[in-house]
Each structure stands twice: as C-alpha cells, then as structure tokens.
Specification:
Oligomer: single chain
Helix content: over 70%
Number of helices: 12
Order of helices and strands: HHHHHHHHHHHH
Strand content: under 5%
Number of strands: 0
Radius of gyration: 18 Å
Largest sheet: none
Shape: globular
Distance between the termini: 64 Å
Length: about 210
C-alpha cells in the first residue's frame, strides 16, 4: 500500500508567497506518482488549494469532485479544502460544517497535524466560537508528539493575539505573541521567529503610548 505524503515534502512543494509556482511544482510531483496512489490523491487536494488561493474556485471544486480514494487522510484533506474554498469565497457558514467533519475525520485516523489544521480553520470561519476552536487546537498541540504539528502553536497564538489586539485587550495579546515567539523558537521557521518578535514589539509600543 502506498504511504501518505509527508508534511515535510509538502513543505518543500508549497510557497504561499508564490502560489502559481507552488501549483506548478505540485503538478510535476503528481506526474511522478502512481495516479491511483494515496499520495496522488493528496496532491490533488493541494492542487485544489492552490487553485482556490488564486480564486479559481470552480476549477478547485471540480478537482476535488474527482477524488474518490477512500483513505481517511485523503477524506480529511478533501473536506479541509472544500471548507477553505467556501471560506475564501466569502461563505464561512457553508465552510463550518466541512471543517467540523474534517476535524472528526482527522481525529478518527489519529492525524494530529490535520486535526489542528481543521480546528484552526474553524477558529477563522466560526468567529463566534473562535477562542473555543483555538483552545481545542492548542490542546492537540500540547498532546501531540509530532514536532511538525507542534509548529501550529505559532500560528494559533499569533491569530489569537491579533484577535485580542483588535478588541483592545493589549495585555492578553502580548501574552499570546510571547507564547507564539516561544513556539517559534522551539519549532518554527526563522521567518516565524522574526514575525513573532515584530508582533511583540508592535504591541509593546501600543501599550507604552498614552491613550488619546
């Protein structure tokens, strides 16, 4: 049986600052795989994501429609990308049940990385319960032994920090950004480390300025 596509390989293929280039690399990777394999099905979900990020929503949905592999990880990825398409196209209410299904599917197969991804997307789409979903994701981060999955702590604390900053809770925001910085040092990329420190500096600057 084919192995699942590693997150390390996906990290190599993806550059979210160059989505068109990522799409090209994903196509080349797909051409090198057995078209009936689990890896090929997973790559198609990522191609759908690339199309969605370029607002080619109909193409992306059509690509997802063609994925029929019954593997649990593949199912999770299909649900995640369908949810992302709906959220990106301005339909968060339609995205929420898809992300909930993705979270359940990821949990069922024990994929912590995708479970955290699903909860992270729920925190974005389901604004009224954003803190609940972020807490759910961070619980999985704390429990997982997967170092790559633990990197999610950077984004999760960062997102919560900005949400708190927007609501005027600067002290809470600073705490979240400091936690993001700690996670970035432990598990993140150099770019995440720089951005985490920039967020800390910005909030400290806001706190130090007297209110008008």
């Amino acid at each position: 049986m084919s192995e699942h596509l590693s997150q390390a390989r996906l990290d190599e293929l993806w550059d979210f600052d160059d989505v068109a280039g990522s799409e090209s690399r994903l196509w080349k990777e797909l051409e090198s795989r057995d078209p009936d394999s689990i890896e090929a099905a997973e790559l198609r979900t990522q191609l759908a994501r690339a199309k969605g990020l370029q607002e080619r929503y109909a193409e992306a949905d059509e690509l997802l429609d063609g994925i029929t592999h019954g593997d649990g990880v593949v199912l999770t990825r299909v649900l995640l990308e369908r949810g992302r398409l709906r959220n990106s196209s301005g339909r968060p209410k339609a995205a929420i049940p898809l992300f909930e299904q993705a979270l359940a599917a990821a949990s069922a197969v024990g994929d912590d990385f995708l479970a955290i991804d699903a909860a992270h997307m729920l925190a974005i789409a389901d604004r009224a319960r954003s803190e609940h979903w972020t807490t759910r994701a961070l619980e999985t981060v704390d429990e997982t032994e997967d170092a790559r999955a633990k990197r999610w702590a950077v984004s999760l604390h960062n997102n919560l920090g900005w949400a708190l900053a927007e609501s005027g809770e600067l002290a809470g925001a600073l705490t979240e950004f400091e936690l993001a910085a700690e996670a970035a040092l432990d598990y993140g990329t150099p770019q995440q480390q720089v951005r985490a420190q920039e967020a800390i500096d910005e909030i400290r600057d806001r706190i130090s300025k007297p209110a008008d």
